Amino acid sequence: MGGSTLVARGDLVEVPLAGVDGEETLPFPIFIQPNPDRDPVLFSEEGARLGETRLERLHSFGLATFFVPMDRLGAYYSFLEESLDQTLEDPSVPIEEKCKILHQVVTHAARSFLKTPPDKKRLERMLRLLDSTTRLAYRENGALRHLRRMVEGDPTLAGHSVAVSLYSLGMGLRLFPEDPTRAGELTWGAFLHDIGRVPREPGKTDPLPPGTVLDDVEGRAPDYTHTSYGADLLQRLDLPEGVVRAAGEHHERVDGTGAPRGLQGGEIHPFAQAVALANVFDHIRSSHRGFLGIFETFRILIQSFSGCFAPSMVEAFLHTFGPDGGSAP
Fold first, then answer.
1. What's this model's pTM, rounded to 2 decimal places?
2. Which has fewest Cβ within 10 Å: 68, 91, 135, 204?
3. What is the distance of C-alpha 76 from the center of its chain?
4. Which residues 6+ apart lie within 8 Å of 218 measured at CB?
C-alpha cells in the first residue's frame, strides 16, 4: 500500500495526523516523534482534547503522522470513521492524505466485517464507507488513482475484497460517468462478491483458497459453492439485483467457459461481468508468483483469459490504469 502501510514501533503504530480534530475528545493517546533519532514521546493523554493550538504546533513541527498504542488502534479507526466524510470534504486536507485515511478505515472495517456473515446493521456501516469512497472518486479527479496505488498483494479475503472494489469502482467511473449511484452499487457488488467465503464459525481464518481463478496448480478442484451461498445471503439482506448477481455470477465468462452455470454473453449481469474481470486481475497480481506488476498481470490475463470478458468491460478496465484513469470522463 505504499505510503498507506502502517508502521509499528514496539507497541506503537504510526497513523496519519489528518482527520484529527483539535476540538474533539480523543479516545486514544497521541505519541509524536519530533526527532527521528529518538523514540516517540507522549504528547496528549487518552481522553484529552488536543486543542487547536496544540494541533497547530504539530503541523508547525512538519509532522504528518503520529503514533497510537496498538491496543487503541480500533478506537482510532472508530474516531476517524465518525468524521470521515467531513475529512474527505475538507479542502485543506491534501488528496493523498484523504485517500490514505479512507483506505485505512475501509480496510480496517473490511477485516472486521468479513470475519462472520453480516447482519443488516454491520452491512449498512460497510456500505456507508464504500459510498464515501465512491463520492470521493467522483468529486476529486485522481482520487481513485491514489487509492489504487495503495493496493498490494494481500492474500486475505478483506484485502482481496477491497482491491476488487477499487478496481471495479474505476470501471464504474467509465461505465456510469453521470450516475454515481449505479457506480456505487457496482462497488458494493465488487466488495461483497466473495461474501460466500466468509467463515461461518467465529475464529476461522480467511485466506483465499487456491484453484478458483488460475490453473489448478495446487491439484485441487475449483470450489464455486461460495457463489450461490453468497448470492442467497445478499438476497436475504435485500440488496439490489446487480449486487446479488455479482456474487452469484463473478466466475461466469461471456464465452460460456465459466462456472458454475456456464452462462454466456448477456445472460451475465453487467455488474458480474465487471467484477469478474477485476476479480481475475487481482487474483493474478496476488498469485503464488508474488505481487506482479500491472503490465505482467495484463500479459497473463490476455494470454490465459482471451475471449472471457466483453470488450466494453476490458476497455473500461484499461481506462482505470491509463494516464487519466481514476476520473470520470
1. 0.86
2. 91
3. 19
4. 210, 211
